[in-house]
Amino acid sequence: MVDALSRKTELASIMSQPQWDIMGLLRERLQHDPMVKSVIVLAHEGKTKRFWNEVEAYVRTCLVCQQDKVEQQKPRGLLEPLLIAKRPWESVTMDFIIGLPKSKAYGSIIVVVDRFSKYVTFIATPIDCTIEETTTLFLKHVAKYWGLPKYIINDHNPRFIGKFWTELFKLMGSELHFSTSCHLHGAPIIDSSHTSNGLYREKSSDVQVLQGMARASDIAHSYLDRAAKKRKKWADKKRHHTEYKVGDMVFVKLLPQQFKLLGPMHKGLVRRYGGLFPIPGKDGKVSYRVELPSRLKIHLVFHVSYLKPYHEYEDDPS
Predict the structure, then answer these.
(1) What is the span of the domain harbouring residue 228?
(2) 232 assigned to some structural domain
(3) If you placed Cys at 275, which of 169, 172, 189, 251 could pair as Cys (CB 3.0 to 4.6 Å)?
(4) pLDDT tens sequence across 151-180
């Protein structure tokens, strides 16, 4: 069939394939390009190094490039592990799991993890659980059985930063620790607290530790310390240290819904980083306070991995 069609001149175009001398066309076009001619002249004069330095400096300091370009480097900020608890229920983490199928009047869960024994308490809550209800449930399901913890670690959920919650636990003698905005690497609230530290969990179960078996606390603390050091060692291999000074200008990696608060824009035009914003101070070892517009209404402390340094253009990059 193919051979029969190819013999008909009026159908020859169906089977034929055009042949283009692509390289020849490119050479011809480049020979007449004034930019290429200028580069060739600079190359003969030995000035290409300065020329390319200027091009590199321009690209590196371009405002649009700095906001949109994907960085090909390790994430910023070394791992800063939390202090290891010395006894059960001395330090706990709390977080909400929302968006669950509604069952009766419940649609969310409070997850409380003892950082020493990895014992977990799940508390069913209504979808619109208030600060007062959260406090009551915590006292009923956790403090009633294990006592008040010395440290409570959670994110910046409005329930955990409200005046009622903070003042109550301040009077009771408990310290509230918060993770930075959009970042839980330094304080794994739920995802890794119950599943990590396998080195320790192989040696003793959470029930054994809570029951106070002989030397369980000392053994658990030693394995937790080894696991934390091992995790930091491997995590730091995939990160690099970055430090900013007060007054430095940075870009901030915001969520798409947060970008909309800066101004109306199409989702396809949302940049990877917003800015520029100054740094008024440092908050911890790897977190910085950023001076954001008041209309954003988000937490002002960011982990260093969510910040990108601003490179200002210099007239003479050499």
Answers:
(1) 91-236
(2) yes
(3) 251
(4) 888 776 666 666 656 666 666 766 666 665
Q: Is residue 107 part of a domain?
A: yes
- Measured CA to CA, the distance from residue 127 to residue 121 in angstroms comes to 18
CATH of the domain at 173: 3.30.420.10
Judged against a pLDDT cut of 60, whether residue 195 lies above it is answered with no
Is position 259 within any domain? Answer: no
What is the C-alpha separation between 129 and 108, in angstroms, rounded? Answer: 8
298 token code pair: 């988000």
**Per the domain annotation, does 311 fall within a domain?**
no
- Number of domains the chain contains: 1
- How confident is the model over 78-132, as pLDDT tens digits? 888 888 888 888 888 888 888 888 888 888 898 999 988 889 999 998 888 888 8
**DSSP H helices in the chain:** 2-6, 12-15, 22-31, 34-45, 48-61, 63-68, 131-138, 144-146, 158-161, 163-172, 198-201, 206-210, 216-236, 256-259
> DSSP letters along 118-138, please?
--EEEEEE-TT--HHHHHHHH
Q: Which helix (H) or strand (E) holds 311?
A: none
Say how many Å lie between the first and final Cα of the chain, rounded.
Answer: 68
222/85 Cα distance (integer angstroms): 11
